[in-house]
């Protein structure tokens, strides 16, 4: 086991996959010379050269479309979009092209593309650099969506995403890059579509992902002292969704909340809550609730930014209302 | 028009300024100097923790905004960028409310919600900065469309960068502006870097102004560190736009004095080129053109005092109310 930062774990995954498969290449803004805004691609240019580590102009729609084209002829591009907010510029290529090709070509070709990006609030970066937009991708059939919370999962899921034959939207969180955790030595693969119980508990299930996993674990620790046993299910992948792990947990605890940073309205929490109620209604002791971000753009000022996304206290309060 | 601009370029700055009245020159210098001091103050306040998030200083590029905005009427519109403090100041914004916004305070132009990257002063017809590179180009083009629909004689001036000119919206917007003969002036601030990518690596052409004619939009290159030259060319383009002759693309060449934002040391930048550009710093250029030490000193004293008051105003302005913010959000 080696302790490393989330960003270092991602970096390791890229190194390993690029070593393993010469068809893997990375492309994006400031990823080469500068090693990426969050240092995830540091050292890649030196090791693999400019043919496989491509610094692009600020032309998101076209370079993402180029990645789709390269993927169609057998390459495995990993595109970095600096902020998930900027991914709105590439929606045609992702939603209409990458997500559809395998289907509309009658299975003649696949798009083994990974779009790495990062979202989330918490740094005073204001409304166009702080969004949580995973629900947009979650909604589109043909895309896989991955949102790791820990360095081990970041490493293992990125490797699995690169080896996957379909387009994967890989969403990191800007506040997680410097967080530390153990990553096993040697090959670390985490399969897409497998949730993990990060804290076993008996009374309530919290279904969550990305940075909110850490928030939920902290809340679970505090609630444990109050005598409330909270199970934290980290989804890791939103698509494919590990329904089995969610439902097994909820059947044991009888109570559930879905926790995410994205705004409540139209968030994935509503969909997961509906799924639980459709499939495990008889095992529930009450309605499944959502603990989620507020329905507002993220402001610049730190005090009002802070209240836009769930805090540990918000999660504790939400759980106390359930039990 | 192109020949004229070439001869203008050949003239030494002082000669170019001779035809302008002192009031105009002083006004341009005031905005260059105010922007320089404002940016340096912001960097200091950022280090003290009073400014957060992203801060993209306009240091070294001040002459473009000051020169271009001097060619506008107050009723004309501008659209700005993430590196937008200079545009905001030169369009007439109040330094106090700017400083309050950049500190995230309630008295700021955007009530503390926007910050540096989203500052807008609608009372000056500054439609706002933008966090998306190139995001403002279609908006500016649309404002020009709106002017045409409303039938007023306003002009829109759109600031954007060399980086944005490689984004698809640039091509689409120039084409549309030409098709509809819109009253807009595109001011491409070529500061030689798109984040960390040198312009030589992001484009296959030498003069980005050359992209204009491909869309039927006249393209002109100017020395972006010479505010008087920027003023002359912008004035011509603004007159053209106002008289219904359509859009112009002005490429103002300049050089960023530091990294992309405050936390980027800009180690990838070419030190020799930077030194060359700094020897033609917009402030030094303008002082040479004005050639009036007392006049310059008078402006500087006034701006320094104004800035000091703006910083105090920002510090004393209250934080936005959390309760009011929450009350305004609907479920």
How would you describe this protein?
The complex is a heterodimer of chains A (323) and B (331). By secondary structure, chain A is of the alpha/beta class. Chain A has two domains: 2-183, Rossmann fold (3-Layer(aba) Sandwich), CATH 3.40.50; 196-322, 3-Layer(aba) Sandwich (Rossmann fold). Chain A is 36% helix and 21% strand. Chain A contains twelve helices and 14 strands. Chain A has helices at 6-20, 44-48, 60-72, 91-98, 101-104, 134-138, 151-163, 211-225, 243-253, 268-279, 302-306, 312-322, and strands at residues 2-5, 24-28, 53-55, 76-81, 114-119, 144-146, 168-173, 180-183, 196-199, 204-208, 230-234, 237-239, 256-263, 289-293. In chain A, helix 8 (211-225) links the parallel strand 10 and strand 11. In chain A, helix 1 (6-20) runs parallel beside helix 7 (151-163) and helix 8 (211-225) packs across helix 12 (312-322). With 331 residues, chain B is an alpha/beta fold. Chain B has a single domain, classed as Rossmann fold. Chain B has 15 helices and seven strands. Chain B has a five-stranded parallel beta sheet with strand order 1-2-3-7-6, with helices on both faces. A two-stranded antiparallel sheet of chain B has the order 4-5. In chain B, strand 6 (219-223), helix 11 (227-242) and strand 7 (248-253) form a beta-alpha-beta unit. In chain B, helix 3 (22-47) packs across helix 4 (62-69), helix 3 (22-47) runs antiparallel to helix 13 and helix 6 (95-102) crosses helix 14. The longest helix of chain B is centred in the N-terminal third of the chain and has 26 residues, at 22-47. Chain B is globular and about 50 Å long. Residues 1-12 of chain B have low confidence and may be disordered. Chain A binds chain B through residues 29-30, 33-34, 55, 57-62, 85-86, 89, 123-129, 264-265, 294-297, 299-304, 307, and chain B through 52-54, 104-105, 110, 112-115, 117-118, 130-135, 163-164, 166-168, 194-197, 201-203, 268, 319-320, 322, 325-326, 329-331.
